[in-house]
């Protein structure tokens, strides 16, 4: 039991880190790449990159926090409703249990047997309905806060890496060149590790993640250059 | 059956639209707000905003597409594994079915009855294990493509609304003022509709969504202004 919970927590942590890091490595990098084609000062690229990272951190972190809170409220309100139904619509709930099993070819005797045994323990019955009728599992009460912090911090770290290059170079084009090298390496390593922890093919995953980042950056670059040519 | 599928499809569509639109209304708006405090030309704000929207569309859309494809591959490989287990580890799979029901207080007779009836139809048995042991449902084969398009387009529309203001004004400060008015209105309406379709309290949801957008924008603005003061 303890083992399972630890496993669950660490995989939620990894999921959140992956969400934050993959967007963090992609979007600020692509934004900086786009601006590098259109402006002449590294300060503007860095300012825009930092504004984006702050905005992205808060939108993803706070958005994740509120989504987690909503999920908890939803679970609690469905739980209350299910208890009410078990109390007040006993026959209908028994029929719902029977319907679930009828779908899998269990005969009427089997359905009745399960339904009547389930009905003996109200808590277990309600938990069964929550999981198997509604597909809902009780959310971890600290999940919303942890999730917000993990996603926000991962986005911050992922987003700052591509920007570093613009601190150490003197023109946006030099910055872009160094940033693309740093970020391509990071995307590849990150894609590899991500695929490893999620049990996907590792090299394929590394190429996929890298491709998304580079395509987004190339598109942002060409659109920004095109836009800049039209308006200057 | 047809009704359920329509319902499912439309709710996936709405989920994707909500994901794309809420990030689209928040991040490009906050980026533009941040830059408005640090640069003196609307063209730079618009260029950065457009580069961000292109990057965000591709990262979210392509990211969503590949995530959907991975989900399908994962389902298919687990399905194959479950068929193998039912063929080659019959006793263990029977025991797994019994364990699921033991947890809910079903006695040994009931467990054996369900397991032996399930085992009569291999397809139904495997589907049962996929859903109730692994918690996996078969993904809609068009989901990945549809999801990518919906999220990407919603991000594009959501992101262009705040930028419009900078086309029709002559300084970033005027642009920010108009953009904040347009975006606050859009966030509020969007938060209200989002809460309505997800069955959450409508006004509370509208305030939450608006607050995230405005907090992100305010933070991006103050960080960009602060950064600009240090480096100029």
What features would you describe in this structure?
2 copies of one chain form a homodimer. Chain A is mostly helical and 232 residues long. Helix content of chain A is 86%, strand content 0%. Chain A has 8 helices and no strands. In chain A, helix 1 packs parallel to helix 6 (143-167), helix 1 runs antiparallel to helix 7 (172-198) and helix 7 (172-198) runs antiparallel to helix 8. Chain A is elongated and about 75 Å long. Chain A starts with a helix and ends with a helix. Mean pLDDT of chain A is 84; it is low at 1-9. Chains A and B meet through helix 1, helix 2, helix 4, helix 5 and helix 8 of A and helix 1, helix 2, helix 4, helix 5 and helix 8 of B.
End-to-end gap of chain A? 64 Å
Number of DSSP strands of chain A? 0
How would a textbook summarize the main sheet of chain A? none
Which segments of chain A are poorly predicted (pLDDT under 50) over 5 or more consecutive residues? 1-9
Helix amount of chain A, in percent? over 70%
Oligomer: homodimer
Proportion of residues in extended strands of chain A? under 5%
